[in-house]
Input
Amino acid sequence: MDDPLYLLAAIGLMALITGLLRALPFMAGHWLRHHPLVHKLGGSLPMAIMVLLLIDTAAGQAHNHPGLPWPEVAAVAMVALLQWRLKHTLLSIVAGTAAYMLMLGG
Output
């Protein structure tokens, strides 16, 4: 394991793989821009990621206080309703966060 040639080969291989992975989006850019799967994922993946983050955060915060997770449910419902009606993301998030903090008394 202390062989310098082995260490240099391992570092060189890691550098090559890292470089190729970083260059891949540029080399495959034309294919990525025109592929229907990429367009479909671009339309649905951001929302799916936000929903997963929301569920994870709400579930994690619900464990921090006794009782049922009503503050989390109410805040999520408020954000969803405001976003659905007003379509103003920043306002929805700020209002939901403020309401959640007020419900927790902080």
Remarks:
- The chain has two domains: 1-34, 45-106.
